[in-house]
Amino acid sequence: MAYRSVLTVATSAQAPAASVGAAARIALQWDGHLDALAIGVDRTQIGYAYVGAYGAAGAVLLAEGMDRAEAEARATEAALQRALEAQPAGLRASVDSAVTQLGALTDLVAARSRYADLVVLPLPYGEGRGVEDQAVVEAALFEGMAPVLVVPQSGLSSADPRRIILAWNQSREALVATHRALPFLMRAEMVTILVVDPPVHGPERSDPGGLLCQKLVRHGVRAEVCVLARTLPRVSDVVARHVRDTNADLLVMGAYGHSRFREAILGGATRDMLERAEVPVFLAH
User: How far apart, in whole angstroms, are the C-alpha atoms of residue 156 and residue 77?
Assistant: First the structure.
């Protein structure tokens, strides 16, 4: 497998620089094509009852919301175009734009993500980020069924990450992420399968991460297992510290082992990592 079809999505003219740069490097590395989508989002969300009750006034508000969204889409498309022009020669890329209401954003992103080998997006949390950025990440992962590389402001250090941390908890999501990340894993100098506080009962209790390591080695991956105790309040804290301590270039993990609603309200490993990621995070569900 190779990342021949790479997609990046921007919902703001301020967002695309780091994610476009990362997506371009990956597309060039794998001799692929980069599709860049600029989205203008109408956030008015006026209900049908309001439009019916207020007639022309409601229709005017809807029209104004769409006008703003179209202006945002044009500005974002221009920003994407400038970011692409700054990339190395030889990049095959195209830019498209669309306008949607917030409630229909998921369907739009999912329709584009389904045909991408990899979706590259900026961090959905932080200053200047909104609910639409979180919706884009989740739409690509869930409805689009695509692997997502979330890139912090610092960008992607290399299209071939040398040191990769693979967060392993024996879950379906972690296994899917491992399979989708194989192109990166096979080219890395070292892949560390990180197991935090493994259960004392279960199929891997005597050798946590051992079977996964064996599988990866058979694919030519240079892999090792690291088992750590949960010495910090959250598992994500331990993972983040190990990423820093080992100077890793990439973190691979399964996304949203709990429901998205539970993660949004109570928190979870996926949200914790995305809120403070210092290196790119490869996600799959």
Answer: 22
